[in-house]
Amino acid sequence: FPSHDRAAGFIEGDGCFTLQSSTYKNKLYRYPSIKISQKNHEPLYAIKELYGGSVSNYEHNGKKWWSVSGKKALYAYDNISSLLSSKRISQAIASGFPLPHSPKKHTIKWFSGLYEAEGCAIVRGNGTPTYKYPTIIVTQYYSDEILKWCIESTGVGNVVGPHSAGELGKVAYAFRVNGQSAIDLSSL
């Protein structure tokens, strides 16, 4: 797991940028922080190995979370900011992080991190037992910006949507890869 590109994809999918505060000797201190909440705990420990921080010792609804703040959060952000969406960058800037570096090309490692955070693999068909095909899907609300990067990084698939996601009128887009291309992509 330890690659900045893969961590950027994972944080894009399940991360959050916040502004933490604490008081010391009656003085308020604020510092940027990155957090990830996830039921799959393995990636949290891998990202901790890459950027430091801590993984919670307890679970809530099966989820643990990784968090990093201050200088370590700035280091992590410096290494991933050029791969983040405009939504995540806005969230980061509002939380005290600086403007990001120039955007860079999204790689298959970036996609693997995003897929681990937000993707799923299913078998689809037309209702007959003889016609079934694998499909990889990554869904995002409101914007297809990230999903277009999925095509850029994998060289396959398409983006469908917008369609109603059913949650409070949210609009969703999906990146899809079917058939042999899905099998090939899942083996990376």
Describe this structure in words.
By secondary structure, the chain is an alpha+beta fold. It has 7 helices and 8 strands; from the N terminus they run H-E-E-H-E-E-H-H-H-E-E-H-E-E-H. The chain has helices at residues 4-14, 42-51, 71-80, 86-94, 108-118, 145-154, 179-186, and strands at residues 15-24, 27-38, 54-55, 64-69, 119-125, 132-141, 158-164, 171-178. The chain has a 4-stranded antiparallel β-sheet. A 4-stranded antiparallel β-sheet has the order 5-6-8-7. A hairpin with a 2-residue loop joins strand 1 (15-24) and strand 2 (27-38). Helix 1 (4-14) packs parallel to helix 5 (108-118) and helix 5 (108-118) packs across helix 6. The radius of gyration is 18 Å and the shape is elongated. The chain starts with a helix and ends with a helix. The mean pLDDT is 89.
